[in-house]
Amino acid sequence: MGRLNKSGVRGLIRDHVKDPKDPTRTVERYSIDLRFRDGGGAWQRYRERMPLGTKAAAAKARAQLINNGATAGTLETDTRKPMTLAEAFADYAKAAGNNTPTKTAQIAILKKFLGAETKLTELSAFGIEKFKRDRRAEIVKRVDAAAAKDKSKPKADELTGAASVNRAIAILKHAAGVWVTYGWLPAVLALEIRKVKLLKEPPGRVRSLTAEEQAKLFAELPERIIPIVEAAAMTGMRRAELVGLRKSAVDLAAREITLTRTKSGKVRRVPINDRLAKVLEAAMALSHTEHVFVSASGKLYTLDAVTHAFWRACRAAGLKDLRFHDVRHHFATMIRRAGADLSVVQTLLGHATLQMTTRYSHVGRAELHDAVAKLDGSSRIAQYNGVPSPTTDGQTSEKKAG
């Protein structure tokens, strides 16, 4: 039998996890992990995870019942029904928290390709490699179909879809580690899953707009879409954040937008400048709903509606290789050129890590020339190339021979 723990019942374990209803709080979770000898003297192991919210008294009573069965030799260790991928992900989502729309969508994709009713013990590295191939093929097919329909859109290349596939695999790898602690997945199988290599991703895309491109774009945008694109250009907010923006999140007095449903799952506060304040105030005056941006019919925009309107405007303006998300890149590029530090850019964009922001460490060619131009006459190397260097009295002196 296992040793007595703090609960006073052998095999009973108590830990704390995030409260699914309130991620800022934690709740107790009880589980049983009991090792014992069967009637033949062989070591056996019984594991069971109790539902969140199980009271301490109920957990102790259940653990004591298991102990009694083990002592009497009547406990069966293989009575648990194998956990399916759908069941395991449902519990993982509750325990892990941070269930952003992106994460939820990736879990749905994993269940679609791997099989929602697939048993956890049936997962394998081979199955995940097949997922990588099939999921990327689906993305490539969709991209090529869109390019065939709209000649302004690029065709798929060898790196297309890699980032999306990798995000799903990263979630699966993390979940596998969690499932091992629950006793649902053998550690050796989890290790096999976590050794699966990610696909090579393309370098971070950075596309900003010139003043001429901006003029052409806004000249073609529908009147009701213009405020959304303007807001994106002045905040760096994502398309989904703008479409779902509620009036209650906009504080014009404090000049701040508070975003609670973000890609990173963290609250983000976005500053409002004078121009943006006017744009938001005008948009909210036209909307008779709780949302800031609505169509001419008063209905909430869908993501596809905004995207298609943007694409049509780009096509009419003759702008190639431009996506709505590039307006976010444009915002980051502009504030970098204005002198903002990378950490400031990270905070404004809501990036989880500074590494995601380093794509904006670049500067334009004009900035490079200006930086080098500042070295004129101040470089000591110039003295050894026959270039007179300034003296303290303002005159120049030649380097002495010999």
Helical percentage: 40-55%
CATH class of the largest domain: Mainly Alpha
Mean pLDDT: 80
The domain count comes to 4
Question: Low-confidence stretches at least 5 residues in length (pLDDT < 50)?
Answer: 378-402
Kindly report the spatial arrangement of strands forming the biggest sheet: 1-2-3
Beta-strand percentage?
5-15%
Please give the number of β-strands.
8
- Considering the protein shown, what is the CATH homologous superfamily of the largest domain? Intergrase catalytic core
- Examine the secondary-structure arrangement and name the CATH architecture of the largest domain: Orthogonal Bundle
Q: N- to C-terminal separation? A: 91 Å
Q: Indicate the CATH topology of the largest domain.
A: hpI Integrase, Chain A
Shape: elongated
Largest beta-sheet characterization? 3 strands, antiparallel
The ordered string of helix (H) and strand (E) elements is EEEHHHHHHHHHEEEHHHHHEE
Count every helix, treating DSSP H or I runs of 4 or more residues as helices: 14
Structural class: alpha+beta
Radius of gyration: 30 Å
Tell me what you see in this structure.
The protein has 402 residues and is of the alpha+beta class. Helix content is 45%, strand content 11%. It has 14 helices and eight strands. Helix 5 packs antiparallel against helix 6 and helix 8 runs antiparallel to helix 10. The longest helix is centred in the middle third of the chain and has 25 residues. The protein is elongated. The C terminus is likely disordered.
